[in-house]
């Protein structure tokens, strides 16, 4: 009798388990989208970097890493693409946010009426939508564009991470957390509010979209000083040694081909600024580490140590979000996507620049730094100033030589259409649906695919009209086939930002930096052609060997540029 009872109980438990598993698959998934700012392609440990990122590494091991994901080259255009599922020009932010009196349709400086945000699409499907961190797609703000709750800065491209007054809580009647003196740090506070928003969603008993746009690791580069100290010795070894070590780890991971050789250092980002402040090299290339004097090395090692600490702190906060999902039994059926808005930031010379806190006027709450600060020539920090770097009152960037490390082995940086500007890491984690976790996906993808993916998995209907306006159809493609480990499909993508343009068609890429005008190609400018399958670092220009392919791709670029509102340009 006891044996019979045991068997019946076991069968019932198995049936309940099967029902729960089926319920997990059929229940609408939660969606968490995390966007880092100015993170290089190889900064994360799971992409070959020496920065400690155990939480993202774990998500990659249990999910998938994408190797061919693209962005829109800069913060606000990339955010416009991610939020709308369109190319940035179609969404109205082809260049930068602003309010021009008259501008072509692709350069309105705000989200256009011809697009809808992810929150506006998912709300009719029963989702609660929450956003925190960096908005940077101008007015109307996040609440007017479909989100239920917001904490962060809705104007400006950066914040002083030690200054809570730069953040805002919306709607305005919502309670805002308070912090004791010296306790506040923006990455932590963004996560605190994200956790609050998850609790709100749980009380409403509805699936949710949580969009977290961290300020890390955009300049001013800042981090807790004790964490910075743990990285100083690493970066005292210099970018030349560390680039070689990163490439070797990338080979061991299978991210790049074993035959790939380490490219030379990239050019200095802004030679005009480098010349003005006396940091220009004779050949215009980032300097070798050993060519620098001891004080300069100490200053630069500290800058990169702060950057690494800023990234590790972000990873720790992502761990807090993941733990909350795990504690509430939501991790299994939550799609979590992590990526970066553009390549590493080179602004503006090999050694970075300092921002003078005394010249920085703290704007009203909700407004970040947006061109109103005075960038000083980089200085050599010594003594106590060196030890305080990255702490309160210290505001700086890390320069294009370290950005070159962050993008290993890619060419150039944020702002350009070369791979170092438009190539992002991307991790997707969704245990209920992802097949064969732990591997890589070579699917040609773009940040605008995140919206298309969310529309599909949420069961939402993408509208043809919204609030009286005709809506452009989605340009993004769902990533679900990649989650299911289906074979990649042929795809063509174009890129343009401030006259830097490119077209990617399968393995082939045609790119021209500073070579475009309002009608297309500047007379006399030269396209460069690369086969990225064989040459991901864009070392071997094949334009002279493949003139017919150059002609075909350049014509297709112009056709797509007109269709997607790149042209006409201002």
Write up this protein.
- The radius of gyration is 24 Å and the shape is globular.
- Helix 6 runs parallel beside helix 11.
- It has 2 domains: 457 residues, Alkaline Phosphatase, subunit A, CATH 3.40.720; 81 residues, 2-Layer Sandwich (Arylsulfatase, C-terminal domain).
- Strands 1, 2, 3, 4, 5, 6, 7, 11, 12 and 13 form a 10-stranded mixed sheet that branches. The protein has a 4-stranded antiparallel sheet with strand order 16-17-18-21, covered by helices on one side.
- By secondary structure, the protein is α/β, with parallel strands linked by helices.
- The chain has 17 helices and 21 strands.
- The N terminus is likely disordered.
Primary descriptors:
2 domains, disordered N terminus, ten-stranded mixed sheet, Alkaline Phosphatase, subunit A, 15% strand, Arylsulfatase, C-terminal domain, 570 residues, alpha/beta, four-stranded antiparallel sheet
* Distance between the amino and carboxyl termini: 84 Å
CATH class of the largest domain: Alpha Beta
CATH architecture of the largest domain: 3-Layer(aba) Sandwich
Tally of domains: 2
> In percent, how helical is the residue content?
25-40%
Strand content: 15-25%
Number of strands: 21
CATH topology of the largest domain: Alkaline Phosphatase, subunit A
How would a textbook summarize the main sheet? 10 strands, mixed
Please name the fourth-level CATH homologous superfamily of the largest domain: Alkaline Phosphatase, subunit A
Number of helices: 17
What low-confidence regions span 5 or more consecutive residues with pLDDT below 50?
Answer: 1-25
Q: Could you say which overall geometry the principal axes of the C-alpha atoms support?
A: globular
Supply Rg: 24 Å
Give the integer mean of the pLDDT values.
92
Structural class: alpha/beta
């Amino acid at each position: 009798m006891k044996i019979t009872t045991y068997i019946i109980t076991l069968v019932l438990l198995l049936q309940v388990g099967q029902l729960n598993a089926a319920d997990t698959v059929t229940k609408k998934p939660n969606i968490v989208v995390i966007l880092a700012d100015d993170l290089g392609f190889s900064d994360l440990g799971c992409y070959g970097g020496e920065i400690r990122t155990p939480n993202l590494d774990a998500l990659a091991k249990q999910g998938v890493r994408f190797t061919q994901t693209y962005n829109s080259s800069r913060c606000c255009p990339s955010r416009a693409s991610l939020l709308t599922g369109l190319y940035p020009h179609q969404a109205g932010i082809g260049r930068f946010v602003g309010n021009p009196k008259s501008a072509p349709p692709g350069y309105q400086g705000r989200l256009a009426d011809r697009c809808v945000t992810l929150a506006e699409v998912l709300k009719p499907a029963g989702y609660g939508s929450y956003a925190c961190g960096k908005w940077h797609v101008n007015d109307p703000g996040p609440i007017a564009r479909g989100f239920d709750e917001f904490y962060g800065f809705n104007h400006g491209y950066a914040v002083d991470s030690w200054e809570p007054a730069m953040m805002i809580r919306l709607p305005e009647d919502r309670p805002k957390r308070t912090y004791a003196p010296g306790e506040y740090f923006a990455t932590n506070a963004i996560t605190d509010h994200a956790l609050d928003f998850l609790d709100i969603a749980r009380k409403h008993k509805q699936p949710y979209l949580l969009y977290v746009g961290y300020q890390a690791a955009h300049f001013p580069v800042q981090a807790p000083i004790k964490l910075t100290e743990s990285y100083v010795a690493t970066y005292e070894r210099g970018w030349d040694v560390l680039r070689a070590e990163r490439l070797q780890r990338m080979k061991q991971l299978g991210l790049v081909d074993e035959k790939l050789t380490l490219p030379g250092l990239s050019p200095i980002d802004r030679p005009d600024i480098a010349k003005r402040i006396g940091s220009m090299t004779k050949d215009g290339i980032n300097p070798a580490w050993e060519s620098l004097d001891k004080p300069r090395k100490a200053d630069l090692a500290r800058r990169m140590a702060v950057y690494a600490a800023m990234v590790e702190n972000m990873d720790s906060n992502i761990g807090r979000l993941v733990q909350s999902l795990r504690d509430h039994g939501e991790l299994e059926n939550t799609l979590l996507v992590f990526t970066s808005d553009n390549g590493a930031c080179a602004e503006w010379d090999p050694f970075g620049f300092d921002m003078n806190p005394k010249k920085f006027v703290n704007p009203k709450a909700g407004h970040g730094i947006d061109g109103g600060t005075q960038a000083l020539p980089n200085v050599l920090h010594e003594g106590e100033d060196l030890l305080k770097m990255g702490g309160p009152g210290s505001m700086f960037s890390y320069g294009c030589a370290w950005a070159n490390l962050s993008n290993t082995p890619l060419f150039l940086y944020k702002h350009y259409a070369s791979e170092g500007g438009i190539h992002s890491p991307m991790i997707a984690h969704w245990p209920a649906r992802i097949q064969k976790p732990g591997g890589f996906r070579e699917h040609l993808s773009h940040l605008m695919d995140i919206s298309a993916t969310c529309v599909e998995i949420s069961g939402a209907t993408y509208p043809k009209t919204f609030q009286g306006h005709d809506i452009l159809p989605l340009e993004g493609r769902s990533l679900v086939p990649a989650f299911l480990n289906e074979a990649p499909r042929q795809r063509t993508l174009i890129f343009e930002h401030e006259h830097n343009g490119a077209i990617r068609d399968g393995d082939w890429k045609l790119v021209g930096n500073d070579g475009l005008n309002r009608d297309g190609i500047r007379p006399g400018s030269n396209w460069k052609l690369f086969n990225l399958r064989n040459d991901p670092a864009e070392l071997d220009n094949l334009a002279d060997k493949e003139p017919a392919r150059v002609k075909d791709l350049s014509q297709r670029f112009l056709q797509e540029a007109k269709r997607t509102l790149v042209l006409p340009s201002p």
